[in-house]
Amino acid sequence: MITSRTPPHIITLVTTAALGPLAMNVFLPSLPAITTYFETTPSTVQLSVSLYLATVALLQLVFGPLSDKFGRRPVILLAFAIMIIGTLMCIFASSIEWFLAGRVIQAASSAGLVLSRAIARDLKEGADAAVLIAYITMGMSLAPMIGPLIGGYLDEIYGWQSSFYLTLGFAVFALFLIYFDLGETNKHKQNSLKEQINGYPELLTSRRFWGYSATAMFSSGAFFAFLGGGSILANKAYDLSPSQYGFYFMFISLGYLLGNMISGRITKRIGINRMMLSGNITVALGLLASIMTIYLGLMHPASFFGFIFFVGIGNGMTLPSANAGVVNVRPSLAGSASGLAGSMQLGGGAILSVIAGYMITLESNAIPLAAMMFISVLFALASTLYVMQVESRIQAENNANND
To answer: What is the pLDDT of residue 286?
Structure first.
């Protein structure tokens, strides 16, 4: 039964979390068409990705504390209403400046992603929260999986604005679903916003918070680098059409779906740290195989986009556990922790997406982009090992105290 007086159904959490990724990904095949429409450069249009990510990073610093004070429900409702305005600005933009402004306002959709993790922590604890986050993101991954494919076909048939009409319809649906089904899950609201902001130093002095946040940031960094450079690479190096790029984009989304399924099934058995480690190793091996294949002279698009499948699997295994670790460091600051870690994650992603966009030229192949993604995941692997070392020391200290 749908009612706002009870905790939300899983479909509501999936829809809430999916709006941001859909807004981020569905228009990617249209970047070349948008460049032509506004008579500008690819690097300028690429700002529609990096500015979106940078704004999301800043907003997550606000959404977390606001939801800890006022509740998850009102913050998400207001944010989604603002996001709809930004989508309309993109559709009717008369210049690239207005289009980019609309993309910045669209970033309000990030409230759904960051607060769905906080809601999961409200409802579950520990590994159970990681499992719930995994199932939410598993369902959520359908949006970025089919979004670029649909967006590519819409671009070829109706023009680049059509993908934004699709986003607008999904946003309106999400707003109504949240209004009627998302009961408030934050039962321990903080007394003041200042109190929540004052909680940031407590989080920043936690070694485990830094470790989990860095794991999430560098793991997703490989994906954001792909977002920044993948569509340009597809167009310039492989001469792929928008719909063909949308097809290849499905590889990373299918991998993410599979990784989330694995995470949901075995995280409780092996623990979040070993799950993160397994995910990082999967990404590293996939990217290394891609680099070697291209280096040996195979220039087919599958030599890069095919191996991106393993980036999706590894991130699907790593990110639910890393995000669960973040919000479990200080349960009373779950919203703030989720927002701060998400800000770091997407801020780093914005930087990597800009760098990736400038790295791709007419003459380049996929090796520079794949190498950049590989370096990012090596940092994620180091961060995971750091978390495991810290927890090992804490456990040893607790055992010594008990003795």
So the answer is: 95
Residue 398 resides in a domain:
no
Domain holding 340: CATH number?
1.20.1250.20
Distances (CA, A) of 377 to 134, 168, 237, 280, 310: 20, 34, 24, 6, 12
Parent domain of 176: 10-393
Residue in the structure block whose two tokens are 């770091």: 344
Exposed / middle / buried, residue 55 (Cβ in 10 Å: 0-12, 13-18, 19+): buried
pTM assigned to the model: 0.73
Query: Mean pLDDT for the chain?
Result: 84
Return the higher-pLDDT residue of 234 and 255: 255
Q: Quick check: is 316 in a domain? A: yes
**Looking at the predicted structure, is the pLDDT value of residue 138 above 80?**
no
Give the pLDDT score at 191: 56
**Tokens matching residue 169:** 């319809």
Residues 46, 48, 50, 51, CA torsion sign: positive
What residue type is 383 in one-letter code?
S
Task: Compute CA distances 50 → 142, 197, 283, whole Å.
Answer: 22, 26, 23
Indicate if the pLDDT at residue 289 is higher than 60.
yes
**How many domains are contained in the chain?**
1
Which pLDDT score is estimated for 84?
96
* CA-based end-to-end distance of the chain: 52
Any domain includes 71 = yes
